[in-house]
Amino acid sequence: MNDMKKLLDIVFQFIDKDDNVKIEPLGKGHINDSYRVGTDKKEFVLQRINHNIFKNVHELQNNIYRVTSHIRAKLIDKGITDVERRVITLIPTHEGALYFKDNNGDYWRLMKFIKDSKSYEEINTDLAYRAGMAFGEFQKTLEDIGGEPLFETIPNFHNMENRLEAFRESVKANKARRLDEVADLVKEIEDRAEEMCKAERMHREGKLPKRINHCDTKVNNVLFDNDDQVICVVDLDTVMPGFVLSDFGDFIRTGANTGAEDDKNLDNVSVNLDIFEAYAKGYLKHAASFLTDTEIENLAFGAKLLTYMQTVRFFTDYINGDTYYKIAYPEHNLVRTKAQFKLLQSLEENYEKMQQIVKDASRK
Ligand code: GN1
Ligand code: MG
């Protein structure tokens, strides 16, 4: 926990000194630290950017600036009046920089806080449909961003071959001496490895394109207003080129899970097909106009892929001794791994139904 005086000093790099600033922790991210900052007049979100993970903060912030500027320009074009709520606004430092580096070498950024907004860990079908539309629209809006390609803020972020390579290295090194207890699970991962690298192979064969994706379409990254209408999507750290399967799959992984990402009770964990269907319909409403048939045919696979990928990522971190994700207790990454694997099994059991749902949704 950063002490208050230090946090205040950082806030005043961005805004004028003020005696009435209040700062409190915010959100459930596994990577960055977030705080809600309130003054008498305005509210902000302060974040410490985890630069062990985002190694080039300058390029990261530049990406977010480009992405939000592009979205903002389109909102203005459309005559939208509450633009400040519909896209994130970065606040520059007094020197005009998009981030501040403190004496400890930590990186910070400030954004406008979007008032009267909420996010959900669990949603119903109406919300899932609206979230689907929002992410479809997000991808569509960024199709023509122009200029240099966006910077890959984490190289090979959703590359399954790469993730498996890191997993196999962790198994080989067995740094935390945790392998003995998890040998069965290692086998389950390997049994599926070939199938799960399908997207990379298809891309090499020219069958699956890359497009600008959000790459962290967790259900709690959508902000809703008091009437449960979508305001905007947040957490733009990983917006970069990738397969649309990622964005589709990561929402299903988080939004269509009947349990929690780290549920200790595996009986709670399964796929909710009604949420799956509602999200697919909402997503395809906008996205059907630009997706290829191959992309649509593989959306249900995307749900399996991202759940498998997250299983592998949590598992790798557990085997390595918990160096990547924040954990709340020593076995947390193993609990997460098992919960994600249980969800994967449920997706496998329901795979044909999911494919049929996507097929039906894409016809309408
Ligand atoms: C991390 O910090 P958060 O919750 O936004 C991670 C995602 C994972 C997610 C798992 C940069 O996201 O990729 O899917 O945890 N972000 C990064 O819940 O690794
Ligand atoms: Mg994130």
Which features characterize this protein?
single chain; 364 residues; alpha+beta; Phosphorylase Kinase, domain 1; Aminoglycoside 3'-phosphotransferase, Chain: A, domain 2; 2 domains; 6-stranded antiparallel beta sheet; binds 2-acetamido-2-deoxy-1-O-phosphono-alpha-D-glucopyranose; binds magnesium ion
How would you describe the overall organization of this protein?
With 364 residues, the protein is of the alpha+beta class. The protein is 48% helix and 11% strand. The chain has helices at 4-14, 57-77, 83-86, 125-142, 160-173, 183-196, 198-204, 244-255, 273-287, 293-297, 299-320, 332-349, 351-363, and strands at 22-25, 33-38, 43-49, 90-91, 100-101, 107-112, 211-213, 222-224, 230-233, 240-242. The strands form 3 sheets. Strands 1, 2, 3, 4, 5 and 6 form a 6-stranded antiparallel beta sheet that branches. Strands 7-10 form a two-stranded antiparallel sheet. A hairpin with a 5-residue loop joins strand 5 (100-101) and strand 6 (107-112). The longest helix has 22 residues, at 299-320. It starts with a helix and ends with a helix. The structure holds 2-acetamido-2-deoxy-1-O-phosphono-alpha-D-glucopyranose (GN1) and magnesium ion. The site of 2-acetamido-2-deoxy-1-O-phosphono-alpha-D-glucopyranose has 11 residues, from loops.
